[in-house]
Each structure stands twice: as structure tokens, then as C-alpha cells.
Specification:
The chain has 302 residues and is mainly β. Helices cover 9% and strands 39% of the residues. It has two domains: 124 residues, Cupredoxins -  blue copper proteins (Immunoglobulin-like), CATH 2.60.40.420; 115 residues, Cupredoxins -  blue copper proteins (Immunoglobulin-like), CATH 2.60.40.420.
Length: 302
């Protein structure tokens, strides 16, 4: 693919002083492509998470109305002509999707706090047209909604501009069904306020990353592979002036959208040898991005 995007934080990227983040159109020139991510569920060692296919179009989601509770891998395939992402939220009891959308859109309009009755649980990161991204989460019975927070080129998220949302229900699993455990992770990655930690190094090949939010705020992670000759300082400098195009700077290797403290999300990605950057662009309470608080870190894959 040609250009994709650097990272999908909360779907609302660069913050203003009120905590609303803007994603300028020049971001499309930052990335030369996004890695298509799929999940291999053929292992026979133990029952694997349910796999649910989601199609993102311009501007709607096509996904099941009902999903069984437990560990679930979501594969988001972009069948539209514009980038899309899947941000998963759990609606608290008594809150409908229409009420959520009214509250969210009003919060966006006024640069106010996002609705507390719809905590974020992560989800597949941004996929460019024709691409697939993934995320695995543990779901409990209840009401959920997918929204797309991608906001190019005008800074307005697709959920606000086009109503790109899809509600669904998670029902209790059959007690007779075999117990399904979490995926087996190659590396644990921790997110805190405002740093990344890992319990090992990521090796080249297809790897499963377990991401844990141990901070006090919602966090995300985008894993960006640097183009040959590029450095962390190049990325940081560009993000300080995103109006300046930067072709062939990074490619997106994988990651997860934002999720609340105390939760965990898994994602599966193919890593090739080279230098990468971990970045979180979620907006802090002071209106600055987490990256501006230092949540950007280089790693090397052998």
C-alpha cells in the first residue's frame, strides 16, 4: 500500500489545550504502509479465543449482533476507501448506543471529558484500505459498541461526522463449552503514566504481545518501524510540526487502541529486524498528548 498513518491514539490525535486531539491531513504522508496483521489459530495445544470478523466500510461496521463472552480475537478488515479503526467500548447498564452518541458528540463539540459510562477496552488499530488489524480481549456479558475515531482530513472523528458506530451484545458462554484461556504471549508490555516497560525483547517473526495498562489513565500503544536511516528524534521532530510532510519515516507494525487502567489487550504482528518506536498519543488531563509527557521509546528487533 501507499501511505497509511502513524498511530491511532484515541482516534483523536494531536491535542489542543482543551484535550481534543487533532489529526491533520499531512499525517497520511508520514507512513509508507501498514502491516497487514492476521492471527494463526491453528495450534492444538488448547482451545483458542473465538475469532470474530469485522468489516469497516465508508462509514459503517459490518459485524455480528451477538458475541459469546470470553477471550475473543477481533479481525478488522478495511473494505472502504478511507482508513478506519475499531475502538471498543462497554456501555454501562441502562445506557443505549443513541444516548452514548449524543453524549460523546457533545463532549467532542465542547472539548469536554468523554462519557464515563462507556469505558474503552482497546481494539484493532487503524487499517488502511484492504488491510487487516487485530486485537484480543476478554469480554463479559453486556452491551458494547464499536466506534471509529479516525478523523482525517478535517479533525472530526468518523463516529461524529458520519455516525460510524455499531452496537452489539455479548452473551454468556455455554457452561458445557471448553474453557478458553488467554493467548500465549511472547512478550509482556506494560503501560504506565508515562512510559513503556517490557519483560523481554521482541524477536523477529510473528509474535503475540500482551499489553497491560498499569497506569492511572487510559493508554494505547502503536509500534512503528523506522525506515532505514531514520531515528526517534526524526519522529519526535516531525510530531512537533506535523504540518511538514515526512515521507518514508515509519511503518505501523501493530498495536492496540486505547483502553482503561487495569485491563489487558493482546495483539499479533509480524516483526522484521530493525529499529522501532513505541508511542502513546492519548490525551492527558492537561490537554497534552502522552508522548509530550515522554511516552515514546525506541526498541530494536533482532
Amino acid at each position: 500500500m501507499a501511505c497509511a498513518l502513524i498511530a491511532r491514539c484515541m482516534g483523536e490525535y494531536m491535542p489542543n489545550t482543551h484535550g481534543t486531539v487533532m489529526f491533520p491531513s499531512s499525517w497520511l504522508t508520514l507512513v509508507v504502509g501498514i502491516v497487514s496483521v492476521t492471527v494463526d489459530c491453528t495450534t492444538k495445544e488448547s482451545p483458542q479465543p473465538n475469532v470474530v470478523q469485522i468489516s469497516a466500510r465508508d462509514y459503517s461496521f459490518d459485524s455480528p449482533d451477538t458475541v459469546v463472552a470470553g477471550w475473543t480475537t477481533f479481525l478488522l478488515t478495511n473494505e472502504g476507501e478511507h482508513p478506519h479503526m475499531g475502538q471498543l467500548l462497554r456501555l454501562k447498564q441502562g445506557v443505549g448506543v443513541d444516548s452514548f452518541l449524543v453524549a460523546y458528540n457533545e463532549a467532542f463539540r465542547t472539548s469536554g471529558a468523554r462519557p464515563e459510562f462507556a469505558p474503552r477496552l482497546g481494539g484493532p488499530t487503524v487499517a488502511t484500505p484492504g488491510q487487516t488489524t487485530n486485537a484480543t480481549m476478554y469480554l463479559t456479558p453486556g452491551n458494547y459498541v464499536w466506534i471509529c475515531l479516525f478523523n482525517l482530513p478535517d479533525g472530526v472523528p468518523h463516529v461524529t461526522r458520519h455516525g460510524m458506530a455499531r452496537a452489539f451484545i455479548v452473551k454468556a458462554s455455554d457452561e458445557t463449552a471448553p474453557s478458553v484461556g488467554a493467548p500465549k504471549a511472547d512478550v509482556d508490555m506494560t503501560l504506565v503514566d508515562y512510559a513503556f516497560g517490557m519483560n523481554g525483547t521482541i524477536k523477529a517473526g510473528r509474535r503475540t504481545i500482551r499489553v497491560l495498562n498499569q497506569g492511572s489513565e487510559s493508554h494505547e500503544v502503536s509500534v512503528l518501524k523506522l525506515a532505514p536511516g531514520k531515528t526517534l528524534d526524526d519522529v519526535r521532530a516531525w510530531l512537533q510540526n506535523p504540518a511538514t510532510p515526512k515521507d518514508e519515516l515509519v511503518t505501523v507494525a501493530g498495536g492496540t487502541t486505547s483502553f482503561a487502567p487495569g485491563n489487558e489487550v493482546y495483539f499479533d504482528a509480524h516483526f522484521t529486524p530493525g529499529d522501532y518506536v513505541l508511542i502513546c498519543l492519548v490525551t492527558a488531563p492537561d490537554g497534552r498528548s502522552h508522548m509530550e509527557h515522554g511516552m515514546i521509546q525506541p526498541i530494536h528487533v533482532e
